[in-house]
Amino acid sequence: MKLLALVAALALTGCASQPAYPGKTTINVPRTEKCKPTSEKKIAALFERWNDSLQTGDPHKVVANYAEESILLPTVSNQPRLTPAEKEEDFEHFLLNEPSGVIDLRRIYLGCNVAFDAGLYTFTFGRTGQVVPARYTFTYRWDGEEWLITSHHSSALPEQE
């Protein structure tokens, strides 16, 4: 948990430098001087916005929640999704199962024009009735007009009773 707090603190300060590794891309997000006021309640509502977009069954509406330069590390795929087209392809398959998510536990960290929401959620799939508990991390950035997802990681819980 201390490591998670440290990672969040570094990410939110905007002062952490990112090492350049061969074959890796570093995306530099321009800093703005004016911070968008927000709250834990407003950031928590971003999950509901994303979950509501799942209910439409339209992958394009889901992907509209993501920043252009974002990364999706999906629950049931080994392939990172970097482009809007790759994310849309992933959600085309995911939405076939009629997913609906509920937050079970969360921690939200706020920074200047960035936010971090991590915890546990459970998905119920309307098509099959399957229930999948998973862990998640969403990072958000204010783009001057709206809060968008800059990274989304989701993975099934490894230890199920």
* Average pLDDT: 86
CATH level 1 class label: Alpha Beta
Report the span from N to C terminus. 22 Å
Topology pattern, helix = H, strand = E: HHHEHEEEE
- Examine the coordinates and then state which fold CATH places here, giving the name of the CATH topology: Nuclear Transport Factor 2, Chain: A
Please specify the SSE layout and strand pairing.
Elements: H1 2-13, H2 40-55, H3 59-63, E1 66-73, H4 84-95, E2 99-110, E3 114-125, E4 131-142, E5 147-156
Summarize the structure.
This protein has about 160 residues and is an alpha+beta fold. It has four helices and five strands.
Features:
single chain; 161 residues; Nuclear Transport Factor 2, Chain: A; globular; disordered N terminus
Question: Overview of this structure, please?
Answer:
With 161 residues, the chain is of the alpha+beta class. It has a single domain (2-14, 41-156), classed as Nuclear Transport Factor 2, Chain: A, CATH 3.10.450. It is built from four helices and five strands. The protein has helices at 2-13, 40-55, 59-63, 84-95, and strands at residues 66-73, 99-110, 114-125, 131-142, 147-156. Strands 1-5-4-3-2 form a five-stranded mixed β-sheet. A hairpin with a 5-residue loop joins strand 3 and strand 4 (131-142). The chain is globular and about 50 Å long. The two termini are 22 Å apart.
